[in-house]
Design brief:
- The complex is a heterodimer of chains A (140) and B (666).
- With 140 residues, chain A is of the alpha/beta class.
- Chain A has a single domain, classed as Rossmann fold (3-Layer(aba) Sandwich).
- Chain A has 4 helices and 4 strands.
- Chain A is globular and about 40 Å long.
- Helices cover 28% and strands 24% of the residues of chain B.
- Classes of the chains: A alpha/beta (140), B alpha/beta (666).
- Chains A and B meet through helix 1, strand 2, helix 2 and helix 3 of A and helix 4, helix 5, helix 14, helix 17 and helix 18 of B.
Chain lengths: 140, 666
């Protein structure tokens, strides 16, 4: 059986969670590998959430927020846009592949986009192999 | 305290149960830590479903509840109320979304069931850490702001004002009326647009509960549902409105003539002008970009002022009411309102981008709005349908779906074009009865009361219907009968034949598109936009006037293209929603906000600058940050940033989110 990665999706309530809801309402099919945790704003995403996910067995973490300029709280997504790249820098020093953490902007009307991001990321991580706490994936 | 958790798995008919094995998920939930009872039921949101929860809370002494069903954006309030009814604090509830995020998007039943289990597990782990919270009630300011003075805004403003509540109606242009004021007749009844609109416009102008602000725009909105503070910029009109009598003498005198926006550039207006005869307010304004005195002032020169002084030689007096005030400045007005109705409308698609249609290159290719003005008795041709050289057309083609239903421009159907195209055919039949009329359509979409009947009537009136989208409009004649004509080239898909239709005039039924400043409007009012650019409603079916920002409603064509009856209905609906809130008098404010643990706060002030709402202040005495509960909106930006972990976001605590992350990874 092929490896089925576990991906934690951390989605902002206003745009991305609504976008994922829209994917459902439009019966858009995508892989069941992402499990969603809702936060009010992508600016609430504490980098330790990502570390926690990897510690608890995630193979990837997908963070989604509103498009730049469309944040329900004016500028929370800009905070995410600064924090997540910093986190990724640190993760790379720990030997965690860049593709395992993704920050994407998904609006409430982009159900299709959410579905294709999930499919794409799942495929990417499937290729990388499972996350290993001893440094990267089996193939990485 | 011992946690006693009840878990309820909803089948949602076959919506969930068709893909997720609900019994298995229930069985799984039963085995989870602290779960006292787990049940599955056909429709948890139904009364019997909710009663299951209520009875269990009492019988089993539940102190936490999880429902796995649809999106919390759908039914979280329903189940929170059910908990509250049974005496359980509503925040001791959590929802797992196994429909929108699971059963509806996955096909493999085994994997969907496994995912549902993970989501339920996460909710159970999260709810373990939930704390009871108290919501705050705040009074609702009974004033309402309506933005946009087209038919949508007019209707909404009248509905609210007629109930005896203050309305601030803000319009960007010098007069209210919007696009509808430009129309000639309205389909399918052929009511004269001005005849049915002007009584409403006049009422607005005289209404004791409506403060109308034209040439005005909303610059900033702060606050929250029930208590918004709005900053409005009233642009200088250079006219004292209290003095101006609307006599129009100034526009007779003004030597500067420019294309009239109201007449789509087909007619002229002056630099000082009353936008149209039935404008409300019926007062003059000065266009500062065109007025030679105002332009001169910028260069330190004192020129013209003919409108003010008159022309002595000819014995023509200037403004006798002494209403002209070149020193007028923009004014910022601040108002407080409880609800906001956004009715900012649409703009017509610019067909010049479709080069092969030749709009802008050929004189006799017109847009729909241009034809409306031409056909209107108050328009630039006094209601006569004329070619650019003043002749009457002998043949006319009307092109449907220009910019609509077209992958290159807008994929959506603009909904009104089929009907207004039919209306044009009828008007042409009246005004140039000998002229041959062609309608080039893709599909005829005539859904509405009396619409299909109107279509039938037009078929009987002798319109040539050609099924096919026009490919090109050219003036290159191939046959003698095409000389001096515009030739519409299309494929008639009913007879599968390429056709060249020579005509004198082409009218393009252009798409309705989001306004160019829709992005700015969205930012000002915290609205989201759909993929097509129109404003996003809270729910496409069940909440088509509310938005994700409580207390802000969208109506009319800024939400999606629609006809006048639908616009009016939606405007009344939004007014009703605002009035419901006013009538209740108070609104519940979300308790999920951030709080500072003063013991842990190191006083680094990082949070103070981060807060987008300036809700955090620094207590210099205690050397700790303080969060203003009324201003905090609970985004959690400060929570994530606090290096001491001193700020916690209620209902989204780090503990709760961490537990949920662990939970989804079973």
């Amino acid at each position: 059986m092929s490896f089925e990665p576990k991906i934690v999706g951390i989605l902002c309530n206003w745009c991305s969670y609504a976008g994922a809801d829209l994917a459902g309402i439009s019966r858009k099919k995508y892989t069941p590998n992402v499990r969603v945790v809702r936060v009010m704003c992508s600016g609430r995403v504490d980098p330790t959430f990502v570390l926690k996910a990897f510690e608890s067995g995630a193979d990837g973490v997908l963070i989604c927020g509103c498009h730049p300029g469309e944040c329900h709280y004016a500028e929370g997504n800009y905070k995410a846009a600064r924090r997540i790249p910093l986190l990724k820098k640190m993760l790379s020093q720990l030997g965690i592949e860049d593709e395992r953490v993704r920050l994407e902007w998904v609006s409430a009307s982009e159900g299709d986009r959410f579905a294709s991001i999930v499919d794409e990321m799942t495929e990417q991580i499937r290729r990388l192999g499972p996350f290993s706490r001893n440094g990267g994936g089996e193939n990485g | 305290m011992e946690r006693r958790i009840g878990v309820y798995i909803c089948h949602c008919g076959s919506n969930i149960a068709g893909t997720v094995d609900c019994e298995k998920v229930t069985e799984f939930a039963r085995g989870l830590d602290s779960v006292v009872v787990a049940r599955d039921y056909k429709y948890m949101c139904s009364d019997p479903g909710q009663n299951l929860i209520k009875d269990d809370i009492k019988e089993h002494g539940l102190n936490r509840v999880v429902v796995a069903s649809c999106s919390p954006r759908m039914h979280e309030p329903t189940f929170r109320h059910a908990c509250q009814d049974a005496g359980l604090n509503q925040y001791l509830f959590e929802m797992a979304n196994i429909r929108e995020h699971c059963s509806w998007v996955h096909e493999d039943k085994g994997m969907a069931t496994e995912k549902a289990k993970a989501l339920v597990n996460a909710a159970v782990r999260r709810v373990y850490y939930h704390e009871p919270l108290e919501t705050k009630e705040v009074p609702v300011n009974p004033n309402v702001l309506v933005v946009g003075g087209g038919i949508a805004g007019i209707q909404a403003a009248l509905e609210v004002a007629d109930s005896g509540h203050q309305v601030y109606l803000v319009e960007k242009d010098p007069s209210i009326g919007g696009h509808m004021a430009m129309f000639d007749k309205t389909f399918p009844t052929l009511d004269c647009a001005a005849c049915i609109l002007t009584p409403k416009m006049t009422t607005i102008g005289q209404h004791p509960y409506i403060q109308l602000m034209t040439c005005s725009e909303v610059e900033d909105v702060s606050g929250y549902v029930g208590n918004f503070k709005v900053k409005i910029r009233k642009r200088a009109k250079y006219i004292d409105e209290d003095k101006c009598t609307g006599c129009g003498q100034c526009q007779e005198l003004c030597p500067i003539s420019v294309p009239s926006e109201f007449d789509c550039g087909l007619g002229k207006r002056k630099a000082i002008y009353i936008p149209f005869p039935y404008a409300v307010p019926n007062k003059a304004v000065i266009d500062p970009v065109k007025c030679s005195h105002l332009k001169g002032l910028a260069e330190g020169k004192d020129v013209c002022r003919i409108c003010e002084k008159g022309i002595e030689k000819k014995g023509l007096p200037g403004c006798e009411a002494d209403a002209i005030d070149f020193k007028q400045k923009d004014e910022i007005v601040e108002v407080e309102v409880g609800n906001i109705i956004v009715a900012t409308g649409f703009q017509q698609f610019d067909p010049s981008v479709i080069y092969q249609y030749g709009y802008g290159r050929y004189d006799n290719v017109f847009t729909g709005l241009e034809f409306e003005r031409m056909s209107n008795a108050s328009g630039p041709t006094n209601g006569e349908v004329l070619l650019a050289d003043g002749r009457k057309p002998e043949s006319i083609a009307i092109l449907h779906c220009v910019g609509s239903r077209d992958e290159n421009y807008h994929k959506y159907c603009s909904r009104v074009c089929c009907m207004y195209s039919l209306k044009y055919s009828h008007l042409l039949r009246e005004k140039v009865p000998e002229a041959a009329a062609y309608q080039l359509y893709i599909d005829m979409r005539c859904a509405g009361s009396g619409y299909e009947e109107f279509y039938e009537r037009l078929q009987e009136e002798g319109v040539n219907f050609v099924r096919g989208r026009a490919g090109e409009i050219t003036n290159i004649a191939e046959r003698p009968e095409e000389e001096g004509k515009l030739i519409v080239i299309c494929e008639d898909t009913l007879v599968r034949r390429k056709r060249r239709i020579p005509v004198d005039m082409v009218i393009m039924s252009c798409a309705l598109e989001p306004r160019a400043d829709a992005d700015q409007i969205a930012k000002t009012f915290s609205l989201s936009r759909k993929a097509d650019g129109f404003f996003l409603e809270k729910h496409p079916k069940l909440d088509p006037v509310a938005t994700m920002t409580d207390g802000v409603f969208v109506v009319g064509c800024c939400q999606s293209p629609k006809d006048i009856p639908d616009t009016v209905a939606q405007a009344s609906a939004a007014a009703c929603r605002a009035l419901a809130m006013i009538s209740k008098g108070k609104v519940e404010i979300e308790a999920a906000i951030a709080v500072v643990d003063e013991e842990l706060c190191a006083g680094c002030k990082i949070c103070v600058d981060l807060c987008p709402y300036k809700a955090i202040s620094f207590d210099e005495e205690k050397k700790v940050s303080h969060i203003n509960e009324a201003v905090c909106k609970g985004c959690g930006v400060c929570v994530a940033a606090c290096p001491s972990g001193a700020i916690s976001g209620r209902h989204f605590t780090t503990e709760q989110i961490m537990a949920e992350i662990e939970g989804v990874l079973v």
